[in-house]
Amino acid sequence: MIQQLDILIIGGGPIGLACALEAQKAQLEYVVIEKGALVNSLYHYPANMTFFSTSERLEIGGIPFVSTNAKPTRSEALEYYRRVAESGKLRLNLYEEVTDVIRQEIGFQVITNKSTYLARNIVLATGFYDIPVYLNIEGEELPKVTHYYQEPHAYYRQKVVVVGANNSAVDAALETWRKGAEVTMVVRENEIGSRVKYWARPDIVNRIEEGSIHAFFNATLHAIRANEVDIQTPEGLITIPNDYVIAATGYQPNLDFLRKLGVHLSDDGFCHPSYNPDTQESNIPGLFLAGVVCGGMETHVWFIENSRVHAEKIVHHLVGGMNDE
């Protein structure tokens, strides 16, 4: 049986849940489709991660987020969003992936690996964590290479190269070093990133200065092999022994999916999608964008704390339009 909806929300992260709460409050027929677990991106964050934001900045729908720490942890965030979904009795279809979207005269037909939906409107709240920014170098496909660092135990007494200089790279470098790894960082810039969490940046800088963690600045990883890597440094190409590579090089939204839907992207390299900031509606009528996907390749622009308002804008616009009909 084909379900007919006012809104189909693609993406079950915090902003997708915020959209569901607003739709429910407005008594709209909606469903959230998520191809993985609830708040799938947060689920895949490092196990010991601490958020930069305070708990109140991660709240959605006016539901309090109580944390035992000034900065909440990943496990606290997962518990909070489970509680939001459960207490709100949100209509969530998890582990269901959208395979096709067909524009119709009015609305859209959305086909997934489990069902088919008819929706007057679609909200894309798909985030950016599913597609890594690849290095595109020899050996990147080897099993010793990961773009998703989870926890440090497996790296005990291993020679680890961490590529990157922002929060993910710094967390991976510090945690694996503290659990007994021999860590080398490869940093494209001339210093550790300025946006690194304020309590972690001096820690990593001090570890590098004292020589506990090795670092090559203004450098790139050139090639990866089973037992070693090549690093391009200002002094030339060097080779060092290596067991594992953690490529914390960032992630990107599914731009191909946006293009397939007909969303216009800027041609300046940032691939900013076209949308009305007052309503979040894209250049495709009835197709709305919410959350970090609005930034294109600039994934550091939108966060939970400044994009949760997107849900209110979208639903306010839709309810106003329905009342005018």
Short note summarizing the structure:
This protein has about 325 residues and is α/β, with parallel strands linked by helices.
How would you explain this protein's 3D organization?
There is one protein chain. The chain is an alpha/beta fold and 325 residues long. It folds into two domains: 3-131 and 251-324, 3-Layer(bba) Sandwich (FAD/NAD(P)-binding domain), CATH 3.50.50.60; 134-247, 3-Layer(bba) Sandwich (FAD/NAD(P)-binding domain). Helix content is 24%, strand content 24%. It has eight helices and 17 strands. The protein has helices spanning 14-25, 40-43, 74-87, 167-178, 201-209, 255-261, 304-307, 309-324, and strands spanning 3-10, 30-34, 92-94, 98-103, 108-112, 116-124, 131-132, 145-146, 159-163, 182-186, 214-216, 220-224, 228-233, 236-241, 244-247, 251-252, 287-289. Strands 1, 2, 3, 4, 5, 6 and 17 form a seven-stranded mixed beta sheet that branches. Strands 8-15-9-10-11 form a five-stranded parallel beta sheet, covered by helices on one side. The longest helix is centred in the last third of the chain and has 16 residues, at 309-324.
